[in-house]
What does this fold into?
Amino acid sequence: MFHGVFVIMGRRPKPADREAGVGGRRSWQFARGEAGDNPQEVLVTRTLCWGLAALTLARTAIAAELSIAAEPPLPVANQVRNPGAENGRDLLPEDWSFTTARPDIYTTGWVDGGRSGKCLWAKCRTSEMSGYWSQSVPVTAGLKHRFSGWYRLASGRLMCYAHGRGTLPDGRTRTIDQRVYQGTMRGHWLAPVFLAPEALGGPDPALWYPFRIEVEVTEGFTSLTFSAGLYFQPGEVWFDDLFAGLARTTLLPVVKAGEGETLRRVVVRQAGVDKPLHDTRELPAGAREWHQRLADLPTDAVYEVEATLTDGRVVRQGYPTTEEARP
Ligand SMILES: [Ca+2]
It folds into this structure.
């Protein structure tokens, strides 16, 4: 009975299971046994008949198997410590520090009102100096990395950047400095007099927006500094849910037809992108298995494999599968 339920849930017994007598086939043979006079045996037989019915239903259901793996698997590890700024003490967030050459013009804090819970906050009174919340994160040379997060900008100009200096085996040094800016004229001293509100532009100060930097980490780097702050303008900004980690993955979808089934077409999509990543079109007649290697795909995305069987039935599988793992 247990195995019958298992089949209905979509798991077909693997060949090794079958050899070991585990799986649907064993339940099937057991269910065919004759009912005896013993009431307990009758009960067991009835139960097994339900199992048989379940197996029959399973036989009419789609048995094709879709599996999606990735290298590296999703979600990739976030190398930022205390990424949501939820941890801290003495009014300071753990693992983050604020640096500026002019601390007298900045007010900073570990504050409520984040995209979730707590967040990082900075306010600057003049345009004399920049200032940033920062931390160092480990990186892997030779791989593309993503530095991303969320900001809310009330006024001024923010800058987020990934930066550092690496040393090659021969002693030469290299630098990485990849930036993203976002500005608004709100709060600028010219704004009240010379600029109409619609000309102020920039993000809505009440909303959180994502930012994203991709960095090709070259030889000689083992870490980079992730900084987020204000850039030479008076202003006020909040940051939350920061991420640093591998930017790209290779998707490895596999589709296997069930017993008596054949595959007509397989399409792989990325959520929010119109054009499919991969479309087999009409597969050769009698196709029973399909697999593909789809390289250089963003790690902060959701993917779906859709297999159409020859008789028109469709099976879909998303990846990553858990809501928590999705960006
Ligand atoms: Ca938070």
